[in-house]
From TrEMBL:
Annotated protein name in UniProt: Coenzyme Q-binding protein COQ10 START domain-containing protein
Signal peptide per UniProt: none
InterPro entries assigned: Polyketide_cyclase/dehydratase, START-like_dom_sf
Record-linked Pfam families: Polyketide_cyc2 (PF10604)
Length: 178
């Protein structure tokens, strides 16, 4: 979309997943909800835990998002507040935060601990005020590259699309509650 607040991403990827939502809540409330990683288990049906950790994956005492911090995520596909069924219902991801801009309301992280030629991903999230409605617009995109991105796309592409939609919907619901 031409009025997107996401940065342009290079063409060097195999596939991408995106979602967006208009949220009837102040941008600062949505931003605070998005970066309150310890509370994800209370509302996020896709990313059930989002823990800042050391590069060796030990949890950090300070869970404040910052560039260079590592994240260990536990995700449910399909998104559920309970335990998903199936062998691949619960997955994890290990990433490093590459961008936090509170003024522009943008955050990004990329895959860590895996050779980029094998699998790499980069996820961006951005908030802006929709000029027409005055609501907060949430946008997210993740691009996947490397040899295993083809496998990821084939086996998990549709599940990731559903999961990203659930993330946007539950962020909206949580932000509009407060």
């Amino acid at each position: 979309m031409s009025d997107s607040h996401l940065p342009p991403l290079g063409a060097d990827h195999v596939f991408s997943v995106s979602a967006s939502a208009l949220i009837d809540a102040p941008i600062e409330r949505v931003w605070a909800t998005l970066l309150d990683f310890p509370a994800y288990g209370d509302w996020n049906s896709f990313v059930r835990t989002m823990t800042l950790v050391t590069p060796a994956k030990a949890p950090l005492a300070d869970q404040t998002a910052a560039v260079g911090a590592h994240i260990l995520m536990r995700v449910h596909m399909p998104p559920t507040m309970g335990e998903p069924e199936g062998m691949f219902g619960v997955n994890s991801a290990f990433c490093v935060i590459t961008h936090i801009d509170a003024d522009a309301h943008r955050a990004a992280w990329k895959t860590a601990g895996t050779p980029a030629w094998l699998l790499r991903s980069e996820r961006w999230q951005a908030l802006s005020v929709d000029e027409t409605t005055g609501k907060t617009r949430y946008e997210t995109v993740e691009v996947f590259g490397g040899i295993l991105a083809y496998v990821t796309s084939y086996f998990f592409g549709d599940k990731l699309r559903v999961a990203f939609r659930a993330f946007a919907d539950t962020l909206k619901a949580r932000s509009e509650q407060s």
